[in-house]
Amino acid sequence: MIDETRVAAKDKSPLVYNSVPNQQWVEKNLIAYLMTGVDDSEFRPNEDPKDKKSRINGKIEYLTQTLKEAELKLESLGDVGYISLTDDSFIDVYRKKLSEVASEEEALYNKREQILEEVRIYETEKKKLLHLISRLNNLKSDYEDEMSRLQFINAGNSLVSQLKDVDCPLCGSTIAHHMIANISSSEYAEAIRNEYNEIYFKHQDLKGLFNFNINSLFIRC
């Protein structure tokens, strides 16, 4: 009987039809497995001693480099000359550092919340102060309008006091000076001055209060 394992292993086997080298190897391996029950997965060809030595030296160099990198990484964490990664003292050191970092983080968070609360309070006070300043500004404008009105009345009173007897343009009758002068009595002029002075002092007080609030707002900003 023909040894199919031997035949399949030849360069030109009657059982291998594929011309692609990789596929030929697959077909040969399959035939050998069907005939013997053993495939080539565990096959290890004879290795040249020089190649084997080079391969082993390469692995040694790789392991040596890996160990050096690991040592450098450990040194960056601290003195590892006498401390083991499994040593409780080593773990306690970094547990303490983590605890310190956590405490600092908590302190910064609390400080942030405190600052945010101060900002909220400031914004509320700022809105109230701006509203008050707006009302004071409106009141100041009202006082100024009232003083202008009293000044106009006082000026009119002075003009009336200078009038003489005149004839009415409609009926032609004479209007005596003393009839007009009664309108501009000294008591009336005094009342106008008193009211003007009262409003004036209120206006001055309001200006001081207005400037104080403006300065307070700028100082807070």
Strand % is under 5%
Which sheet architecture does the biggest sheet show? 2 strands, antiparallel
N-to-C SSE string, H for helix and E for strand: HHHHEEHH
The total tally of domains equals: 2
Cross-sheet strand order for the largest sheet:
1-2
Through-space gap between termini: 106 Å
Averaged pLDDT, please?
Answer: 73
Q: Roughly how many Å is the radius of gyration?
A: 55 Å
Give the fraction of residues assigned to helices.
over 70%
Count every helix, treating DSSP H or I runs of 4 or more residues as helices: 6
- The strand count comes to 2
Assign an overall shape: rod-shaped
Q: Helix- and strand-based class? A: mainly alpha
Low-confidence spans: pLDDT under 50, at least 5 residues?
Answer: 1-10
Describe the structure.
With 221 residues, the chain is mostly helical. It folds into 2 domains: 1-40, no CATH class; 97-218. It is built from 6 helices and 2 strands, in the order ααααββαα. A two-stranded antiparallel ribbon has the order 1-2. β1 and β2 (174-175) form a beta hairpin. α4 packs antiparallel against α6. The two termini are 106 Å apart. The model is unreliable at 1-10 (pLDDT under 50).
